[in-house]
Amino acid sequence: MSLSQSYLAELEHEYASSKRILERVPFNDPAYKPHEKSMSMERLARHVAELWGWAAMTINTDLLDFAAGYVPTPEVHSTEELLALHDNMYQKAKAALSGASDEEFGKMWTLRNGEHVIFTLPKGVVLRNMVFNHIIHHRGQLSVYLRLKDVAVPGLYGPSADEK
Asked: Rg of the chain over CA atoms, in angstroms?
């Protein structure tokens, strides 16, 4: 199995899990935060959706420089907009991963903010840490937000307390 095929299999699973969470994000209180230091529910949900685009960026570029004008995706105002963003970013990730050779995953990729280099790692490691694990981390946070808003949390790796 090629690295591309391996990442694509994981992409399919994690995309479906993320979609199950995002489908439940309520937009009646998008500014909700469980703590003043937390992201708003809308921003966190959007971040989960937009991160699939980072897979395409990782494969298709050699760096991201925040100082060069990186702009996050615009706000979303409904579940439909959130899911459309999620699907769009997923399609970009799928296309990039489908076309990547095993050698591409070993090439170096850099995250920086101007002169400050945050890290330089092989693209395969960036995909694992800054895309897949990052999405899983924020998806977990989002499940807590849903619980605190009394929204049924879907099962992601088996049944949840709300889905037996």
From this structure: 16
Per residue in 20-49, pLDDT (tens digit) is 999 999 999 999 999 999 999 999 999 999
Q: What is the rounded CA–CA span in Å between residue 97 and residue 100?
A: 5
Instruction: With H, G, I as helix, E, B as strand and everything else as coil, classify residue 38.
Output: coil
How far apart, in whole angstroms, are the C-alpha atoms of residue 141 and residue 136? Answer: 9
For residue range 131-153, list pLDDT tens digits in order.
Answer: 999 999 999 999 999 999 999 99
CA distance 147 to 160: 11
Structure tokens at 61: 């570029």
Spatial strand order of the sheet with 63-65 comes to 63-65, 108-113, 116-122
H/E run at residue 112: strand 108-113
Within a 10 A sphere around the Cβ of 85, how many other Cβ atoms?
21
Asked if residues 30 and 42 have their Cβ atoms less than 8 Å apart, the reply is yes
